[in-house]
Each structure stands twice: as structure tokens, then as C-alpha cells.
Amino acid sequence: MTLQHRLSVVGDENDPNLDNKTPYEQLVYLLNNDQRYLKEATLNKRVGFYRIRGDLGTGNFSQVKMAVNSLTRERVAIKILDKTKMDEKTQKLLSREIKSMDYVKHPNIIRLYEVHETLAKIHIVLEYAPNGELFSKITTFGKLQETECRSNFSQIVSAVSHMHDRNIIHRDLKAENIFYSGKRIKVGDFGFSKCSQVGEQLSTYCGSPPYAAPELFKDEHYEGRYVDIWALGILLYFMVTGIMPFRADTVGKLKKCIIDGTFTIPSFVSDNCQFIIRNLLKRSPKERLTLHSLERSDWLEGQEFPKPLHSFELMAHHALHSSGTDEQQTIKCLNELGVTSKVIKECKDKGVRSNVTGIYRIMLHKLQKQKYPYLADDSTTHSSRDTSASTLSPSTIDGYSSKKKNIKTKVCTIL
Ligand SMILES: Nc1ncnc2c1ncn2[C@@H]1O[C@H](COP(=O)(O)OP(=O)(O)OP(=O)(O)O)[C@@H](O)[C@H]1O
């Protein structure tokens, strides 16, 4: 295959320096010498091997863009953080986010491909979820039917179960961090996640107020797992009703409502689902349903709970010596692109901060999606982000104004 087929932006066909080079070498050459590539980088239209294609949105700490890898042509989401605005605390959160994402391997969790650092910015290259957020879907089309809720919720529960089995707690589960890739659910945004053992007491207060468990407001310490379980209860309530169980116009009043703990569930919600919500939203953390009993509940009977993926190498230099067929096939693809064993070994020390790691992970994921039906992108979509979801105007959830207002604001210390 020629470079013209491979690269989304091609170089000067008459440039003799491109002759006899592999696609990888050509791209590296173009990035360093071709005026168009250099200009793209200056205009923030390029980040390393990725060409920026558009905005996906802006969060509290970052901007997220859609981009295409020039070598593999796969779409990715790039979360961009401004280093000048990062204090010690946010740097710590970022390194935890990277660590947590590398620790989980599940079909319902967004994958981390690469981290690219420049003088001023950090770029986190992630699996792209093309079909928008659960939040946008509900605020646009209204509550979900229970059948759809059951299928979506079981995927979310599987993902959280896997995190907890790996001793990772998320601490920011909410509809804005649940994405669709086709009909498949992808849990993302590990910005507040933490490695935490069973029984470990935590004291940093993270998350979004409407999803915060009562102990976050009133106790000095909390156990991470129970906070995630509470957030699942809020999320499920929101999915089946389209409104939030605890509503107020200030964080102070909201805090009071949550500590008070009284909420009503509309009568159209089935008894089995009401049972789940009431038992997830128990004031006392230890009385909340466990993920195990949730999976075995009547309401989720017959649902599929996607299993974690079998173990695979995350680093190309480990894959060189792996007996796994997925890894071997991926290395073969990399070699065809000109990413030789020598190149792979040279990048070894850079770990996730290397474009070779990015290409390896993207190609491995692509291959796995082709090979395993439970990973394949389901193209039957309810709405395409490309046409609607990314440009949705934020709407109001029963008293909570949208994303832009402070009720959605993440606070790391809840007063
Ligand atoms: N992997 C992804 N694939 C597709 N879109 C994404 C991905 N990650 C984030 N986005 C989109 O990018 C936008 C910004 O995301 P980000 O997580 O930074 O902010 P947020 O969730 O709106 O706010 P917060 O700062 O509270 O997390 C959102 O609209 C989100 O849907």
C-alpha cells in the first residue's frame, strides 16, 4: 500500500526524500520537514501523528477534540489539558487517570491509546465514542424505556464491577461520562478515579454534587466503592425518569436534600426497578446493594453482563515477545507500516508517551474489534454525534440547568 493510501494528509509527491521510505518513516519525515504539516502543528490542527478534525466539547479542566491518526486512519478523541493551569493536585489526578485506564480492560470502558506532551499542553488520546453521551440522549429525547435501561445499565454495572474487581474506583459516574459507541455503552472520564483497596477510607471529596452520596457531605471519611454504588442509583433513576431524584437550585440546598435522603419514584417505574433504586440509594453505605446482587436481581434477569477482556500486552515492546496471537498480528501490521522491532525497542522507555504505543494500541483494538463480535462497533445507532449530539444545545433537567451552570460543576472539595 502506498503512502497516499495510508496517510490522511499526503506530502509532496515530487519530494525525492519520500522515496524508499516506509509509511512510518515518511510520516516522521513530513512532520519534521513538510510546510503543511508544520503549519498544521502551529495552528493547533495537529498533535503528533493525529490530525485534529473538530471539537467534541469543553469540560471543566479540558477541551476534547476529534482527530484522526495519520498512519492508521482511526478516529480518536483527544483530551487537551493546559499545563500552565495544572497545579500539583490536578497533576496527581492526571497520573491516576492514566494509571487507572491502563489497569482496566473491559469492552464497556473507553480505552487509553497514548499521552502526548508538548511544552504547554498534555494530550490524552482516547478511544472515540461516536454516538454521544447518555446525558445528551436523555435531555434531548427524554427518559429511556425500561428495556433499553436494562440493557444499558447492565453494561454500566459490568464496567463498574470490573473496575472494583481491579480495585479502581471511579468517583465520577454520571450520565455525562457514559458514552455510546453504536448501541454499546462506554464508561469514560477517569479523571477522579483512584486505586483503593476494600475497606480503605478516603477523604478527598470528588464528583458532581447531584451524584454525591450523603457520606461525602457529612462524614470525614468514605469508602470509594459505596460512593460509586450510590452514583449508580442516581444514574438509574435519571435513566428511567429523565429527572434527578434530588433537586435543588443551590449546592447547599441539594446537600440538605441528599443528607435528608427522601425521594419519590414515579409510579410508571416498574416495582423491580424501584426496588433496585431504593436499595442503591440507601443512606447507610453498607446497606446498599452490592454489584453482585445487582447482577442477580429480578430486574436485570436475562441481561448480558459483558465480561472483561482476556489479558493482553499494552506495550508494543512487550508484544514483541508475546505468544498471544492478537499481539503477534498487531506487530505484523506495525512492521508493514514500517514500525520495525528496532523502532519499537527505541521507544520502550517512553511507555504510554510514545506515538509507537499509540499506533500499537489503536491497531490492536482495531484487530480485536474485527475478531471478537462482542467488541465490534455496533453500527445501529440511535443518533449520530456527527450530525446531532455534539451540537446539542444543553437542556434543562428538572431544575438543573445544563452543563454550563455550576450544578454540573465538578468539585474536588465539597464544602
Ligand atoms: N472518548 C470520547 N469520545 C467522544 N466524545 C468524548 C470523549 N470524551 C469526551 N468526549 C466529549 O467531550 C466533551 C468534553 O468532555 P469532558 O469529559 O472534558 O467534559 P465534561 O464531561 O462535559 O465535563 P467535566 O469536566 O465535568 O468532566 C463532552 O461533550 C464529551 O461528550
TrEMBL record:
Gene3D superfamilies: Transferase(Phosphotransferase) domain 1. It comes from the Eukaryota. ATP binds at K79. One of its GO terms (molecular function) is ATP binding. GO terms for cellular component: cytoplasm. Belongs to the protein kinase superfamily. This is non-specific serine/threonine protein kinase.
